[in-house]
Amino acid sequence: MRRKPRVPPAPLPQRDGVDPVRVRLPADGTWATVRDHLVARLAAEPGVVDRMLREGRIVGADGTPLAPDTPYAAGLYVWFHRDLPAEPRVPGALTVVYRDEHIVVADKPHFLATMPRGSHVTQTALARLRADLGIPALGAAHRLDRLTAGLLLLTVRPEERGAYQTLFADRRVHKEYEAVAAYDPAVALPRTVRSHIVKERGVLAAYEVPGAGPNSESRVELLAHDGRIGRYRLVPHTGRTHQLRVHMNALGLPLLGDPLYPAVLPAVAPDDFRRPLQLLARSLEFTDPLTGAAHRFVSERTLDAWSSYGTWADG
Q1: Separation of alpha carbons 113 and 274, rounded Å
Q2: How many Å apart are CA 17 and CA 15, to the nearest integer?
Q3: Dihedral in degrees, nearest 10, Cα atoms 201, 207, 209, 213
Q4: What is residue 147's DSSP assignment?
Q5: Which residue, 101, 172, 174, 126, is CA-closest to 17?
């Protein structure tokens, strides 16, 4: 069996909780210089790579800046930090609920992505917690959608992350969510919803396939209602993308503030934090795979549309 090449450690420190970019030069490259390859590979404005090279911001494995005429060498690793556009700071506290030598449990606000991706890089739970707690190796054991608030489990040591990710993969984490959605007395609850959900890459909304074998299951319970909207407990038994949102919409009870279900709405400005999706990861319960400790964590957040509908609706 052919071994994968050993990846050397990053010679650059994190910046604002964000790792440097690592690029490995491919074996079949025909470029004369490292510079030529980076210009062809990176979606950067003209002159950006040349400026970064002049400023010594692109380095090799030993941290030495590369010269603009450094020859191309197949398999060479280079690192650099991207120039990131300013991101509007997501409002709301990112609260640490629990911390020990193995894990961190955080309670994140709506609109804060879990991990750096796309246009959300520094304004993510992972980047902010790495910087705030001084734990560069902190990693997420699972994800919450950017629009969903609530509890997030992170691991302190990379070598232990797999043990906690396996808990989620094996459905050994009991998760409960809370949601605010339309109320319909004709919808009999509680009930268990099962369906086959498909989420295609590059398509915003997931969809259900009628007649296909179920690959998702959610328990839906009504906690209270005021005749117009209801507060619900949602218990997912599987973890498909947007599963709870899809199942509630299928019941005719779309979540308040949902920009995708029942219809995909036009995108809003990056700094528009009005009317957050009314979905909260309320609790996490599991047995720690390393210590054997029984953990149960509960979010202290509330959903605005239930506690003060007028304030939420007015934004």
Answers
A1: 16
A2: 5
A3: 80
A4: T
A5: 126
Give residue 5's pLDDT: 65
Q: Please, which contacts does 144-147 make with residues 24 or more away whose CB atoms are closer than 8 Å?
A: 144/108, 144/114, 144/281, 145/242, 145/277, 145/279, 146/111, 146/112, 146/113, 146/114, 146/120, 147/110, 147/111, 147/257, 147/259, 147/276, 147/277, 147/279
| Tokens matching residue 129 | 């917690």
**For residues 149 and 177, is the Cβ–Cβ distance under 8 A?**
no
* Cα–Cα nearest to 257, from 176, 152, 145: 145
Average pLDDT, integer, range 160-172: 96
> By the 8 A CB rule, do 120 and 130 touch?
no
Q: Is residue 315 packed enough to be buried (19+ CB in 10 Å), middle (13-18) or exposed (0-12)? A: exposed
Under the banding of pLDDT at 50, 70 and 90, the label for residue 2 is low
Please state whether 257 falls in left (phi above 0), alpha (psi between -120 and 50) or beta: left
pTM for the whole structure: 0.90
First to last CA, the chain: 58
Query: Cα-atom radius of gyration of the chain, to the nearest Å?
Result: 23
Contact yes or no for 304/276 (Cβ under 8 A): yes
The pair of three-digit structure tokens given for residue 151, joined into one six-digit string: 């509890």
pLDDT at 110 over 70: yes
